[in-house]
Each structure stands twice: as C-alpha cells, then as structure tokens.
Amino acid sequence: MAVNRRRGEVSAIIDGRERTLCLTLGALAELEDSFAADNLADLAERFGQGRLSARDLIRIIGAGLRGAGETASEAEVAAMRIEDGAAGAARVATKLLTAAFGAPEESPPPNP
Q1: Over the stretch 35-77, which tens digit does the pLDDT of each residue have?
Q2: How far is CA 81 from CA 7, 75, 101, 111, in A?
Q3: Which of 2, 12, 26, 83 is the most buried (most CB within 10 A)?
C-alpha cells in the first residue's frame, strides 16, 4: 500500500494488515479535545516532551485511523494488535506526530 507522505500519511501493520493513518486537521482537532489543548502549539508541546502513555498511543493511533477514513473507536483501537506490540505502537504514533508537526530540531553542536 502506497502512502502519500506529502499528505502526512503513514502506514502500519495493525491486526495483520497494512493500514494507512493520517492526522488530518479534523484528527488534530480531535486530539486537541482529547488532551484539553487550547491550540496546536500546546498539543505539539505536550507531545514534544517525549512521554506518551498507552492511553496517549491509543488516542493518537485512533485519530490517525479515523483521519484516514476508518471508523475505529478508542475501545476498538485498544484491542488491536499492532506489529511489534507497545514499541510498534509508539513508533506508529511518533511517525504520525512527525508527519503532522515535523521532526524536532536537533541541538546545535557545542562550540569548542
């Protein structure tokens, strides 16, 4: 399955089949509501801390699936088997967030 990276799509093996996920504006608005964020900057700051709970992963992956056109509820996402388990779920969420917000900037090298 080919994904359109320009549209922020990522792919993942979930329940044994390849699926497309995408954090559309609607999906990002859903995440703002879920995380009680006032705006996208607040949401990006929260995710930029690098500490995601299992519940966070469920919400992010669910929003990505719904953004790509699936109708999975959070309970259904929680029951899904993601390739490589929790580590795989964290990678999928990270790929989605990177596609939506861009990669975190690297620190400049220290001056000698």
Answers
A1: 999 999 999 888 888 889 999 999 999 999 999 999 999 999 9
A2: 25, 12, 26, 46
A3: 12
Surface-to-core class of residue 65, CB atoms within 10 Å of its CB (0-12 exposed, 13-18 middle, 19+ buried): buried
CA distances from 15 to 73, 79, 81, 85, 95 (A): 15, 9, 5, 11, 18
Q: What is the DSSP letter of 110?
A: P
How is the chain split among helix, strand and coil, in percent rounded to 5?
Answer: 55, 10, 35
54-67 vs 85-101: helix crossing angle, rounded to 10: 60
The first and second tokens of residue 110, run together, are 């220290």
Where does residue 43 rank: exposed (0-12), middle (13-18), buried (19+ CB within 10 A)? buried
Q: Token digits for 52?
A: 């995601």
- Tell me the pLDDT tens digit for each residue of 83-96: 999 999 999 999 99
